[in-house]
Automatic annotation (TrEMBL):
Protein name in UniProt: CoA transferase
One MF annotation (Gene Ontology) recorded for this entry: transferase activity
The organism's taxonomic lineage, starting at the top: Bacteria, Pseudomonadati, Pseudomonadota, Betaproteobacteria, Burkholderiales
Listed SUPFAM superfamilies: CoA-transferase family III (CaiB/BaiF)
Keywords attached to this entry: Transferase
Keyword Repeat: no
Organism of this sequence: Pseudaquabacterium terrae
InterPro entries: CoA-transferase_III_domain (IPR050483), CoA-Trfase_fam_III (IPR003673), CoA-Trfase_III_dom3_sf (IPR044855), CoA-Trfase_III_dom_1_sf (IPR023606)
Length: 387
């Protein structure tokens, strides 16, 4: 039995943040009913690269879910959501604040119908505050949360991470909130509750020591390329064949082993470099010494020598490297999955790994409205494809 088997989830969200949270719950056994707009469905069905008219991203984001077509602007669609919410454990939405209230489906209305309901609300800026009504996408949350300011090379335009990291972070925070709320409800005898997740706050929550450094020292952390300011040495170092070795020699004992490998006993035994603060003061010198060594060797030789010395190091992976890598295969992190049209597709595996109740892919991503009749018929509604 999967850990969340029996948990009933209604997913009203679209695109990334809300559906990613639903995906995670579904992988561990929750019954996720995904409500999609009539005729068009979730816009993610048409995002990025399409195969046979459907995004291959969709096959990952919506696996294990059931699809129901509803017009949430109609009285009938709203009535069906209320009926579904009465028996649900969780409802997920990521509309702009106030949208569900306009349809009579806000927190107060649904809680009155089902006091045990846990409702996850993901938005750009949260359900309160002066920015609550602003539309917000992940890219804006990444910028406001402080991540964009730190991404890129010094003196150049701030760059975005190549994925929608703000949406994914919001989804993961939402899942944490859902599981916490379910535990409070079921193990502590509590009631349901509303979980308010803002995109920018989810990014901000992983910004480490940014605020206390500013408060204590007036320090504004800036872009630093591939280095990690204040921790040394750790960087990407060029190799003789044009590759880059990522080397993390910032532990005190690791640093000594690294200096021994590159043939710098003077730095290895320098008392001023024994701890991180001393190394940070001379980080440019250390980076030059390390790269002088890596530039004389191809990437594979560099990584082999560092592995033998137990110095953490690695290469920059492309997706081809990921698919071909034995570690990914051994932990089933790239798996082949049969889609709804019968074709096979490599997709990411499931995280985290649970020893007793592991996640699983039990159902292909649904065709639009595939389960509308099934879901409505079991609840006494007419068996129509769309409402």
């Amino acid at each position: 039995m999967q850990a969340l088997k029996g948990v009933k989830v209604i997913e009203l969200g679209q695109l990334i943040a809300g559906p990613f949270a639903g995906k995670t719950l579904a992988e561990f056994g929750a019954d996720v009913i995904k409500v999609e707009p009539v005729g068009t469905g979730d816009p993610l069905r048409k995002w990025r690269m399409l195969r046979e008219g459907t995004s291959v991203w969709w096959e990952v984001q919506s696996r294990n879910k059931r699809s129901v077509e509803l017009d949430l602007r109609s009285a009938e669609g709203q009535a069906i959501v209320r009926a579904l919410a009465r028996e649900a454990d969780v409802l997920i939405e990521n509309f702009k604040p106030g949208t569900l209230e306009g349809w009579g489906l806000g927190w107060d209305a649904l809680q009155a119908l089902n006091p045990r309901l846990v409702m996850l609300r993901i938005s750009g800026y949260g359900q309160t505050g002066p920015y609550r009504h602003k539309p917000g996408f992940g890219v804006l949350g990444e910028a406001m949360g402080g991540l964009r300011h730190l991404s890129g090379e010094p003196g150049r335009v701030p760059v975005r991470v190549g994925i929608s990291i703000g949406d994914s972070l919001a989804a993961l925070h939402g899942v944490i909130g859902i599981l916490t709320a379910l535990y409070h409800r079921d193990a502590r005898g509590g009631s349901g509750q509303m979980i308010d997740v803002a995109l920018y706050e989810s990014v901000f929550n992983v910004m480490e020591s940014l605020v206390p450094e500013y408060d204590a020292f007036g320090a504004v952390r800036e872009r630093a390329g591939s280095a990690l300011p204040g921790i040394a040495p750790t960087n990407a170092y060029r190799c003789a064949d044009g590759g880059y070795a990522l080397i993390a020699g910032n532990g005190d004992s690791i640093f000594k082993r690294l200096m021994a490998v590159i043939g710098r006993p003077d730095l290895e035994n320098d008392a001023a470099l024994a701890q991180n603060d001393g190394r940070v003061a001379r980080v440019d010198e250390l980076d030059r010494a390390i790269e002088a060594w890596t530039l004389q060797r191809p990437l594979d030789a560099v990584l082999q020598a560092l592995e033998q010395a137990s110095v953490p190091a690695g290469r920059v992976y492309s997706v081809k490297d990921i698919v071909d890598d034995p570690q990914y295969r051994a932990r089933e992190m790239v798996i082949e999955h049969r889609t709804a049209d019968g074709s096979m597709l490599k997709v990411p595996g499931i995280v985290p790994k649970l020893s007793a109740t592991p996640g699983a892919i039990t159902r292909a991503a649904p065709r639009l409205g595939e389960h509308t009749g099934e879901v409505l018929a079991t609840r006494g509604w007419p068996q129509r494809k769309e409402c």
